[in-house]
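Quick illustration for those who missed Monday's session on complexes.
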Amino acid sequence: MRKRPIATNNPHIQALARIVGETAILYRKEDLMAYDCDGFTVHRHLPRAVVFPNSTEQVAAVVKYCHEHDLPFLARGAGTGLSGGAIPLNGEVVISLTRMKRLLHVDLENRRAVVEPGFVNLKLTNSVAHRGYYYAPDPSSQYCCTIGGNVAENAGGAHCLKYGVTTNHILGLEVVLPNGEVIEIGGNGVPDPPGYDLLGLLTGSEGTLGIVTKITVRLLKNPEAKQTVLAYFDEVEDASQTVSDIISAGIVPAALEMMDQTAIEAVEAAAFPVGHPKDIAALLLIEVDGISAGIDEQINDILTICRRHHVREVKVAQSEEERARWWANRKTGFGAMGAISPDYLVQDGVIPRSRLPEVLREIADISRKYGLRIANIFHAGDGNLHPLVLFDASKPGETERALAAGSECLKACAAVGGSITGEHGVGIEKKEEMRFIFTDEEILAQTAIRDVFNPKNLLNAGKLFPTPGRCVETKTPSTVK
Ligand SMILES: Cc1cc2nc3c(=O)[nH]c(=O)nc-3n(C[C@H](O)[C@H](O)[C@H](O)COP(=O)(O)OP(=O)(O)OC[C@H]3O[C@@H](n4cnc5c(N)ncnc54)[C@H](O)[C@@H]3O)c2cc1C
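Prediction with flavin-adenine dinucleotide bound:
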C-alpha cells in the first residue's frame, strides 16, 4: 500500500482519500500497474485509482461518490479470477476488499459463520477444523481467493460434485448497491423466504449488481470417513467411460477429477510431483466420503469399474499424508502449466458426462488445427472441462490463435448441450461466447435485470454480456472522467 503522502490536485483522488484515508489509496501509474489485470492476463487496463476500504460504511461512501460523479468502479478480491471480471476496462476506481478480511462470527450450533468479503476461502476451514467443521466449496485457488470473489463467481471446486457450488452454501449477504445504499438479503435461516430469490441472483452475478460486504455461509460437519483412489489409464476413452459408469452405478463421489497426459507432464515437472507415470493417457483421482459403514463397499465398486475399463494401475491412499500429496499435485495443476509453457489460457466448458470421450477427441482436433498444445485437467464427475491452451505470447499471432482455440473448445461444449462456463464466470473472456447458449431475447432479459440494480451501468461495465453493437447490450458507463 502507498506510503508516500498524497501529491495530486485531482479532486476525485483527494475526495476518495478523504473517505478511506491517505494511506489506503493508490493513484500513481507505477502503483496502479499491479491492478491492470487479474488471472486473465490477455487484457490489461490501468484503473483510475485503487481504494482499500476497511468497513461497509467506507465501501458505501466510495460507491456513492462514484455514483454521484459518474465514475466507473468495480470490486476486487484477490484478483485470481480467470475470466477478466476484475479488469478495469473503463479506467474504473477499483474497490479492493482485501482489508475487509475478518471472521466476524462462528455459530456452530446453527452451522454457520459470518465473514467479510476479503476473508480467504481456506482460512475458514482452517478456523473451524479443530472443532470438526469445514466450509465445502474448495476452488483450487482456495489458499488465496476471497469468499467475496467466490460469491461473485459462484465458485466451484473439486468437492463440489457431491456438496454443491458456492450458491448452495450462502445463507445471507450484505450488499452495497451501485448507488451506495446498503441492503441485507437472507441470513435469518428461513428455508423458503418470501419474494424473489435475490441471494441466488446476486451469487454468480460477477460483481455487476452490487458489492458484497458481509457473507453468512453454511458450515458442514467433517465426514466420518474418507478414502481416495488414484487410477492410471492407457486410453482417455477408458478413463471417460469409468467416470460415466461410476456415476451411473449410483455412487456420488465427493470428488472425481481427471488429468490427461499433457497435464500430467506439467504437474510432474512442477512443485508437487508424486511420480505419476508419464506414458499414461489419463488419470482419475476419486474420493468418497461419508459415514464409515459402506465406504469400503463403494471403494470396491469403484475398483471393479476401473478394472472393467482396463485400468493399468489403481491404488487407494494408504495414509492422510499420501492423500494430501495427491491433492496438492492436482490442486496446483493450473500453475504447473508454467513449468511446460510460457503462457496458458484456462477454459471452463461444461458438457453432459456421457459426451466426454467425443468432446475430448474434438479438443484434440482443435489442438492440431491451431498447432497449440491443449492440456486437460478437470472436474470430470460434473462434466466441467478445463482445456488449458498452451502458447507463447512473445510469438506473433499465438495469443490470437490461443484465444480462437479456446473459443472453439467452448463451441464444442455448447454444441453437445453443455455450457461455456462451469465456475470461472464469463467476465470479458467469454462474453461473445454467451451467444453460443443464449438468444438475443434471453440476453436482453438478463441485461434488463442488471439495469434495475445498476441503472447507470457504472459498476463493472462491459462484462458478462456481448459487446454493444454486436448484440443487444446498449448501455456503457455514461462517462469516463
Ligand atoms: C490457480 C487457480 C485455480 C483456480 N481454481 C478454481 C476452481 O477450482 N474453481 C473456481 O471456481 N475458480 C477457480 N479459479 C478462479 C478464481 O480463483 C475464482 O473465480 C475466485 O472465486 C475469484 O476470487 P477472487 O477473490 O480472486 O476474486 P477477483 O478475481 O478479485 O474477482 C472476481 C470477480 O468477482 C468480483 N468481486 C470480487 N469481490 C467482490 C465483492 N466483494 N462483491 C462483488 N463482487 C466482487 C470482481 O469484480 C470480479 O468480477 C482459479 C484461479 C486460479 C488462478
